[in-house]
Amino acid sequence: MIDHNILTSLQKRLDGEMQYDKLTRSLYATDASVYRRVPLGVTFPKSISDIKNIIAFALEHKIGLIPRTAGTSLAGQCVGDGIVVDVSKHFTEIISIDRSKKTVTVQPGVIRDDLNRFLKPYGLFFGPNTSTSNRCMIGGMVGNNSSGTTSIQYGVTRDKVLELHTVLSDGSEAVFSEISIEEFNTKRNIDTLEGKIYQSIYKELSPKAAQEEIIANFPKPEIHRRNTGYAIDELINSEVFSRDTTPINLCKLLSGSEGTLAFTTQITLQLDELPPDESLMIAAHFKTINDCMNAVVPVMEHSLYTCEMMDKTILDCTKNNIEQLKNRFFIVDDPEAILMLELRAIDKEDLEKQKVRLLETLTKSGLSYANPVLHGTEIDQALELRKAGLGLLGNIVGDKKAVACIEDTAVAIPDLANYISEFTTLMTSYNQEAVYYAHAGAGEIHLRPILDLKKREDVTLFKKITDDVATLVKKYNGSMSGEHGDGIVRAEYIPFMIGEKNYKIIERIKEAFDPGYIFNPGKIVNAYPMDQKLRYEIDREEPEINTIFDFSDSMGILRAAEKCNGSGDCRKSVESGGTMCPSYRATKNEKDTTRGRANTLREFLTNSSEVNKFNHKELKEVFDLCLSCKGCSSECPSNVDVATLKAEFEYQYQKKNGVSLRTKLFANNNRLNDLGRIAPGMTNFFFKNKFTSRILKSSLGIAKNRDLPLLSKQSLRNWCNNNINKIQPVQPIKTVYFFIDEFTNHLDTPIGIDAIELLVKLNYGVKVIDHKESGRTFISKGLLKQAKALANHNISVFNTLITQETPLIGLEPSAILTFRDEYLRLANDKKKAESLSKNTFLIDEFLNSEIQRGNITSAQFTSESKTIKLHGHCHQKALSTIQTTFAYLNLPENFKVTIIPSGCCGMAGSFGYEKEHYDISMQVGEQTLFPAVRKAKEDTIITAVGTSCRHQIKDGTSRTAFHPVTILREALI
After folding, report:
1. ∠ CA(905), CA(906), CA(910), 5° rounding?
2. In this prediction, what percent of the chain has a pLDDT beyond 90?
3. 665: which of 112, 448, 658, 820 is 20 to 30 A away, CA to CA?
4. Residue 544 DSSP symbol
């Protein structure tokens, strides 16, 4: 282990950061692969000068450098024992665009989808499109030579890279681009490291025997997804080494080199014009994998823009994912596989002709049993379903997982059916039912065995299966890596796949570029063993961890954390939409991602020697900025619910470290409001008065810029006691029980009254009974024993009353949705909790269902015109849907409603009131919500379902946001 003083000396040389604390090293020990290698530290360079200093330091101390962007590598490319160089934070600039040449120049930390949003107004886009496109970065795509769904039309990343600005292993800068044979010869005579590189390449690839060896042993050239080793097979087709007139470009070599040859700082890409506007997709359904594979050759005779496959395993995973469930609309019966075939055309007439011809081909083949045709947003939904496939594999409960090792093989399309047939036979011999999905039209199917890499026998199988598949791929002269790269998992197979002579060539090329072997050691050449340093210790004794929440659906809290497979969906940008992960979007720190939190919890629960394994300051740090928005519970493909993990952590941590006064006060907010209601006028005076409120905020650690919430003139429960029986309809359509949550009861009484009066005037009976608060404040503060008592009480009170005919409805999402979420983990009687949860609804859901039944119509509301902008509550979006609110606000015929495409508002209950969180809270609000509200005209009504959201909008924009129920109540005729 290197001395920390030496690492500190590097920090002093950098404008950026150098971190080598235990937490950071743990965060960067894994990526999306099966490997775990704890680095010495992590650097976040801000400039090329920083990168040069890091390289010089690495050379001096013989330390490896591991380049990293989003860390979504499946083969272990961005984990290692040296220093991780993370450019995702500071190297994020789109430098320039040349519209006439259709090129763009970017830094390596630019996200692929963000780039294409920038390019869209120019009518251009960057073609390669991976399943990680909303967070993967261009630098990583170049390093892996990424492909994705579009490669059959637009090629792979290597085809698009025109120029690379790099720092070489001696700290010198070099620009690689297309050059003539004369320029090549000039360069190889220069006495610099760059010159030696050109000399080496010329020496290695000039001999006819070497070229013949490459042609004989590299993957078939018609396989355009091929990443095995360095792309010397591409270089020999240039004018330097053949009669071809194609100029040489060493970007071909650097693309797919996984950062082992040079450090890239700037990338120029060739762009394409945007695809034709008119499109449709045929989702061909098959009863067997074999039928599906045999259909690929005939359908690829058509000009497809997408030819993607999903198998039953992937499809079954989507059944349990809230976010993906709505995307299953097109699935007919229970297919063993689906091919998604996208067609595009300039006009509808041509598109229709293409559709007819493709359907004729499918019908003639007799292989598919259903061929639904999708249009418009339906195509996006289907592609999103396929895109989520990788992450959804993490939903397999238990220690057996779909393992990435043979998932990236590619063969020529005519060989695909036979290859898959032999592969299936091979898997059967190992008693394996593999997972099949991905890029059928490119001859690449992501095949994954189901293995438990915590067990030695399965680790042995991991190696044996990969050995055998390598032999099978070699038989078909295919590529062991189509787009995910060699990394650690496949690098040791390169000599076998391309032949020892060719391997010696790439070894010597590596040495020419990097004689000190500092760039990403253990990848491509001198490979790390593929079955060592795995994420989990083999044959370990599983830690037994008792929790107050019931995590039995994941077989315990440790396995709930282990569901995170590192796919990094939580790193998507604000512009990509959704909610997850608001704190990361503000800080851009890995520790503030869902992945970072799950990985850190896994690290410490697995390796801690403490009696209370939660008692670690590192865990406190990673959970600190979690807003408990629950975005991850639906948007993370593996459904990693960090809000629940955080609540359990807080409970366990506080058992050892105590509960602060502020935490107790926030958690007991309802009880304090009960006391404050003894003299509400005086309470509000203290909260409003500048002098007294300043003292309160200062003493309790509340942000000075926050307005404290005021008590309503009377509680909702008091109003109900005096009024509710007087206003009931004579013959109600049905009767509902109304849950008086702790926030509406004391702080938003007028909204509660609006809700009850709206229901009554719409001819629904409303009953209110004695019950306890929801427990939301206790859950958010980790006081789970109190929350558990409240949950059990409310379940016992409502269990015999609530049915399909007499549902329980509530206003505040964070309160009423506890019945459908946390109560299921807290309840002593699970069956009663589940039964109650099925008939508990947000008022938005209830109103929308009654609209669908025809019980509520637009005739009951005003025809007055109103423009409304709607912000959705995080818990509503995660556990329900904002579409119900959108639907009922559109019921009045002249209401024009738009949903603000915002994520979390940033308040998150008490989070935004806490002084140390105030700045982050406001940064989150500024991401989308505040600008959208400020942009709205004065006569536009701003509406938000959540009480925290409305307070945040007021504090952040000085605009008053109304509850949608109030708007609908006022719209009644």
Report:
1. 120
2. 94
3. 820
4. P
**Is the CB of residue 375 less than 8 Å from the CB of residue 330?**
no
Q: What is the pLDDT of residue 652?
A: 98
pLDDT-based confidence at 599, cuts 50/70/90? very high
Q: How far apart are CA 63 and CA 5, in angstroms?
A: 15
**What is the C-alpha to C-alpha distance for residues 256 and 703, in angstroms, rounded to an integer?**
49
State the pTM of this model.
0.95
Mean pLDDT of 698-708: 96
Please tell me whether residue 108 adopts helix, strand or coil conformation. Answer: coil
SS3 of residue 98 by DSSP: strand
By the 8 A CB rule, do 694 and 704 touch? yes
**Within its chain, how far is the Cα of 31 from the centroid?**
13
Cα–Cα distance measured from residue 389 to residue 326, given in angstroms and rounded to the nearest whole number = 15
Q: What share of the chain is helix, strand, coil (3-state, %, to 5)?
A: 45, 15, 40
Tell me if 72 sits within 8 A of 567, measured CB to CB.
Answer: yes
Residue 750 makes CB contacts below 8 A (sequence gap 6+) with 712, 966
Q: CA angle 755-759-762, nearest 5°? A: 140
Supply the pLDDT for residue 662: 97
pLDDT at 953: 98
Question: What would the two tokens of residue 153 be?
Answer: 């039309």
Amino acid 88: pLDDT: 98
Q: How far is CA 126 from CA 71, 115, 945, in A?
A: 21, 8, 39
Three-state SS at 302:
coil
**Strands 124-125 and 272-273, how do they pair?**
antiparallel
Question: DSSP letters along 557-578, please?
Answer: HHHHHHT--S--GGG--GGG-S
What are the tens digits of pLDDT across the range 753-773? Answer: 999 999 999 999 999 999 999
Largest CA distance in the chain: 98
> Whose CA is closest to 842, among 755, 923, 764, 919?
755
Q: Which of 263, 256, 225 is nearest to 142 (CA)?
A: 256
Task: Give the integer Cα–Cα distance in Å for 435 and 313.
Answer: 6
Average pLDDT of span 141-155: 94
Local structure of 427: helix, strand or coil:
helix
- Residue 607 one-letter amino acid: N
Q: Which helix (H) or strand (E) holds 447?
A: strand 446-448
